[in-house]
Please model this.
Amino acid sequence: MHVGPVDIYEEVLYAGLKNNVGFTSEEFVNVFRDSLKGLRYLFQVDDTYQPFIIPGGGTSAMESVTSFLTKGDKILVVSNGVFGDRWINIFKKYPVEVDYLKAEAGDYVSIDSVKEKVKQKHYKLITFTHVETSTGVRHPIKESVKEIKDYVDIVVVDGVSSVGAEEVKAKDWDVDIYLTASQKAIGAPPGLGLLVISENAMKHLREDNIAGYYLDLKNWLPVMRSMEEGKAAYFSTLPVHTVFMLNEALKLIQDEGIENRVKRHEKVAGAIRTGIEGMGLEIVAKRPEAYSNTVTGVMLRKAKAQDVLSEIVKEGVEIAPGVHPSLQGKYVRIGHMGWVTPNDAIITISALERTLKRLGEDIRVGEGVRAAQSYLT
Ligand SMILES: Cc1ncc(COP(=O)(O)O)c(C=O)c1O
Model:
């Protein structure tokens, strides 16, 4: 029950057990082409969007967005926590002007304040984080984009903790760049950054962009296009085995169906939150409409976060530390993404109850499991 990497299906791991598969082999090219198609399904876009699979992960996908910028461009970062702030840290490394709006821990920046800001100044690019992994807060992407799209050129959404578990409709919502990583709700190993890019954004992929060499998507574009046509291409060696595993994970997602997958995540997340509240604890996300399908932050009153993490492992469950600086040591995070089931929710709540009781936290033992159980039935 970590926030990523998550449990990986054996079929997915086995798919990577290939000896000596060259990146120019027909086998690899076919799998790469299928994975690009799989991304279109995952992000709900059509052929007007260009998919990219690049080495790295969420951060390489984020940094590759500099490919759409030129010197002096103005950017607005909408940050709800640690991963929103990561955008600011990335852009500070480049010759662009960065403004930001920040929410308090557990909240998200209101649509009105984003709208006010984009009306004051013309921004070339704006970034949102769909689910802020540091707090478990989900941003209302569809509603926000609708309000601000007329004022900015390129809308970017970090879906690292949402894609594969939350409703994501990049095209319908008019998002220009939606990105994620392989190791979270997709259920593949870490190692890949995944993006889909609108025609509108692709027009901004210029020769004089400010990206470095490796993450300049202009260098990767011919590889993506060629692979889609079934022809091998090289810019830099791709993590061949990880792509085989990604492709298998994407196939399993298509078999389950994205809507069913979102519903399953919703159910498990709901059971976990009901269990947390049932035992008498608070959730980090302040507004219920911002509860996410993938991460739940749990506030602690007495127990130390570090003790909870090391003790709950002894009960057979691994959860994650809280990482938001203003709540340091005061909360833990439960990840519920990938192939999580209602049984995982019950086991987690029950292990957490025993652990917290032992650590002297004032909770209603048994009430969490009872609440989660009745939620599920
Ligand atoms: C919302 C979000 N964005 C970006 C990242 C960075 O991804 P990576 O660690 O794969 O570079 C993470 C990682 O957890 C994340 O949760």
DSSP finds 13 helices and twelve strands in the chain. The first strand starts at residue 50 and ends at 55. Residues 258-278 form the longest helix (21 residues). The two ends are 22 Å apart (CA to CA).
